[in-house]
Write a structure and sequence with these properties.
With about 130 residues, the protein is an alpha+beta fold. It is built from three helices and six strands, in the order H-E-H-E-E-E-H-E-E. The protein is about 25% helix and about 35% strand. It is globular and about 40 Å long. The two termini are about 25 Å apart.
């Protein structure tokens, strides 16, 4: 699909993907979100850095990315440990975001759940 076809296709399908990270180091969450902000528009500012919250329970970081307009490919990023990422959105949008992650990380699909209009994908990201 060329750029014009992708743009036309993006007008007719949901282009937002919710990304969720849980139980990972703060610097790893920052590495994942900054790589995605390099490639796609986000609901977070470029200088937004994840912060660990005090108290019991796991910290969950979320952000939404619009994949309708792909920017530059992200450079490879280092992770201190593998990171599990959950993606939720339309089929095309989730697939686009997965492709965007591949420039920065080694990506392995752990599982998928398919719905009528959306799908959820769980990925394992590692340093390339």
């Amino acid at each position: 699909m060329n750029g014009a076809q992708q743009a036309a296709h993006a007008e007719h399908v949901p282009a937002e993907v919710m990304v969720e990270l849980e139980s990972c180091a703060t610097q790893d969450a920052h590495a994942v979100f900054s790589a995605l902000r390099t490639t796609f528009s986000s609901d977070r500012e470029a200088d937004d850095v994840p912060e660990e919250m005090a108290g019991p329970g796991a910290t969950v970081w979320t952000s939404t990315f619009d994949v309708s307009d792909r920017k530059a490919a992200a450079e490879p990023r280092r992770l201190s440990a593998p990171v599990v990422v959950s993606l939720q959105g339309g089929y095309w949008a989730v697939d686009e975001l997965c492709r965007g992650l591949e420039s920065a990380f080694a990506v392995r699909v752990l599982g998928t759940a398919a719905g009528d209009q959306e799908k959820e994908v769980e990925l394992r990201l590692e340093t390339r």
